[in-house]
Write a structure and sequence with these properties.
- Pfam families: Tli4_C.
- This is Tle cognate immunity protein 4 C-terminal domain-containing protein.
- This protein is α+β, with helices and mostly antiparallel strands and about 350 residues long.
- The protein has five helices and 19 strands.
- Strands 3, 4, 5, 6, 7, 8, 9, 13, 14, 15, 16, 17 and 18 form a 13-stranded antiparallel sheet that branches. Strands 1-2-19 form a three-stranded antiparallel sheet, with no helix packed on it. It has a three-stranded antiparallel sheet with strand order 10-12-11, with no helix packed on it.
- Strand 16 and strand 17 form a beta hairpin.
Amino acid sequence: MLIFDRAFCFGYHQIAVSADATLNVGQPVTYDNFVISTHPNAGRPGYQRLIKEKENFYAAPGVDGQLTRDSRELFAGAHSVVIGQAPIPEDKIYDTPRAIRKEMGGDDYYSTMFLYPGPASTPDQYRNQFVVWRIDDSMFLLKFGEDETTRLNTLYQNQTALLKRFRPRGDFEVPGPDQHGVCIDDGFIADANDGKGEHFFKTPFASATFPTLPGVRLHVSVNVGSVREGDYLFDRKPPGFVVALFDAFKLRTLRKAERNINGVAGQELLTAWKSEVGEQFLFVWESTENPRLAVRMEWGKQQGAPERQTASPLNEKDALAVWDALLPTLKRRPVQGAAL
């Protein structure tokens, strides 16, 4: 059986995995109002290319009335490209944009940041030394009469403070209890020392695969604010085609029960069926409180053409033993104190 002796950190949480696991934090992730995408092998050439693509896409005459207003380096390896509303010529008829601008009292501006932290500082981070992060959605309204230069300087100060909280992180590196913040793909964002405690964080499924268990995939996710009454795991009905598929394969319920994981209430649903390629399993646990934590483990490749599907590498008893060893390791990453 697998030995879960390494920690996989995602957002404010962690779960144990085996030392040979291949890990991936789903993206893009949302941190406060920022949308963050990871480019793991871009390096400095990719960093420069991404900046140039953004600048050129909104170069005059711009796209949808927008153009690049400014583009500058914030510090070594950090760059910001600011997009703003293009001035509307008086001799052109743009009634709708003009009306919107008048109602808003100004022009929409937004910025995309790019961060290339450079060579990694520890051997565990070596493969991540070429990572580049793209951070979207620095948005603000430049009011009519407001000085653009002053507003941009304030934006750049805030962006610099944010980007200096990013750092590379190795696959199995879990920040210490004195480090408040979130784990993202190949990196870590330290929370601001603003007294607000934890920041909003949401990620698609992060995943892990195991070379010794071919066809097995672990998915974990956190989604703040998504738990609503009537939308618990046991309440949801699968799509009709899934029901028909499971009917054909005689779906069996191995376990369906409430299950508390490290103080978090949740529901567990474990199913099995015998397909054309052999026995397959789907194990799911979801929290019934916010943030929504979800853990899903697929046993056997269950999608794609029949010739590409595979059976579970373990029998029912052994698969359940692996699941019951892994699920209780899901927990919030220990930190000192609730607020920063």
